[in-house]
From TrEMBL:
Keyword Transmembrane: yes
The keyword Cell division is assigned to this record: no
Keyword vocabulary terms for this entry: Cell membrane, Membrane, Transmembrane, Transmembrane helix, Transport
Localisation: Cell membrane
Transmembrane segments: 20-38, 66-87, 94-113, 119-140, 152-174, 194-216, 242-269, 281-299, 311-331
Family classification: Belongs to the binding-protein-dependent transport system permease family. FecCD subfamily.
Principal location: membrane
Protein name: Iron ABC transporter permease
Superkingdom classification of source: Bacteria
UniProt topology in membrane: Multi-pass membrane protein
Pfam families cross-referenced by the UniProt entry: FecCD (PF01032)
Species in which this protein is naturally found: Sphaerochaeta associata
Length: 338
């Protein structure tokens, strides 16, 4: 087999893996639609579909929740993959430049101010998340130490610390029996408030962000190289990096403004995507998106069915993500020894 045939065979294998992941995600989504605690813990059988309450639960509660899990998982994973490639750092996730901390502060601030509107909480979280990105970028222009990416990393650390401190102050003055509990639950993440209206409120923008990132996926390999190398092949590294960072941040902030803080999805799924599809982002990027959707779907289903009370999804993604991360690092260590 010559090099061209070997390359074509590898491409076919990657397409088959992508198709298999899509099929698994569709089948599990359909299966999990019937998993819950009504009319009793377990699965809803066809004999129960005559009950109007069962149909309402399936179509108005579980279905939008599953779709939100798929959408949020894809967006967080796509953002994490983009950040990791742009910074050439496998330990980066969407909150790397203070985005998550800024969004958390914005949501907590609106909760403490006493608003009853979830839309205002969503808008505030989005605005402050974008503000954190802008602050990191402007602050990086003032630094005189290291290269452009290193300055952005350092400014992100500083901005994250500032917003984390501000969030601590907001939690300190929050009313303990209500506002503080709302802030705590938001920061643990959850899809219990999922509805068709919430999905529609972010669908167009998040879908546009995913399309833009998907169309730029082939450039991510080049942008992960040194800036001179990227420029030599006809790219504008500074413009493209800023564009992708802004798009990834907008999608992330809109997502977590509804779901709350959900960690590890944007960190662990790009690792799994590259492990299954290799370093070529043409395949590993969509593979990571599907894995992100699948990971969040499984975590949410476990969280709402395992115990009588719901487990916040952020706790499950952190727990399972950390275990997967340990396994990946252990396997890489063993491969290195071999």
């Amino acid at each position: 087999m010559n090099a061209r045939q070997a390359y074509a065979a590898e491409q076919r294998r990657r397409r088959i893996r992508l198709s298999f992941l899509l099929l698994i995600t569709f089948l599990l989504s359909t299966l999990f639609l019937f998993a819950g605690r009504y009319p009793k813990a377990g699965f809803t059988f066809p004999s129960n579909l005559a009950d109007p309450m069962v149909n309402t639960i399936l179509l108005q509660i579980r279905l939008p929740r599953i779709l939100l899990a798929l959408l949020a998982g894809a967006m967080l994973s796509a953002s994490g993959f983009t950040f990791q490639m742009l910074f050439s750092n496998p330990l980066v996730e969407p909150g790397f430049l203070g985005v998550s901390q800024g969004s958390a502060f914005g949501a907590a601030l609106m909760i403490v101010l006493g608003t009853a509107s979830s839309v205002l909480v969503q808008v505030s979280a989005t605005v402050f998340g974008l503000g954190a990105l802008l602050a990191s970028y402007l602050l990086a222009q003032r630094f005189r130490f290291g290269g452009a990416l290193l300055r952005l990393v350092l400014s992100g650390i500083a901005v994250s610390a500032i917003f984390s401190s501000a969030l601590g102050v907001v939690k300190l003055v929050a009313e303990p029996t209500k506002d503080l509990q709302d802030i705590t639950f938001w920061m643990m993440g959850g899809l219990w408030n999922a509805s068709w209206n919430q999905i529609l409120s972010i669908l167009s923008v998040v879908a546009a962000c995913l399309v833009i990132l998907f169309c730029y996926r082939w450039k991510l390999n080049l942008l992960s190289l040194q800036e001179k190398t990227s420029f030599s092949v006809g790219l504008n590294p500074k413009r493209d990096r800023v564009l992708l960072l802004v798009v990834a941040t907008i999608g992330t902030t809109l997502t977590i403004s509804i779901t709350g803080l959900i960690g590890w999805v944007g960190l662990i799924t790009p690792h799994l995507g590259r492990k299954l599809f290799g370093s070529d982002s043409s395949y590993s990027f969509p593979g990571s998106m599907i894995l992100g959707s699948l990971f969040l779907l499984v975590c949410d289903t476990i969280g709402r069915t395992l115990l009588p009370t719901e487990i916040p999804i952020g706790l499950l993604t952190s727990f399972l993500g950390a275990i997967i991360f340990i396994v990946i690092l252990s396997l890489k260590h063993q491969e290195g020894k071999a």
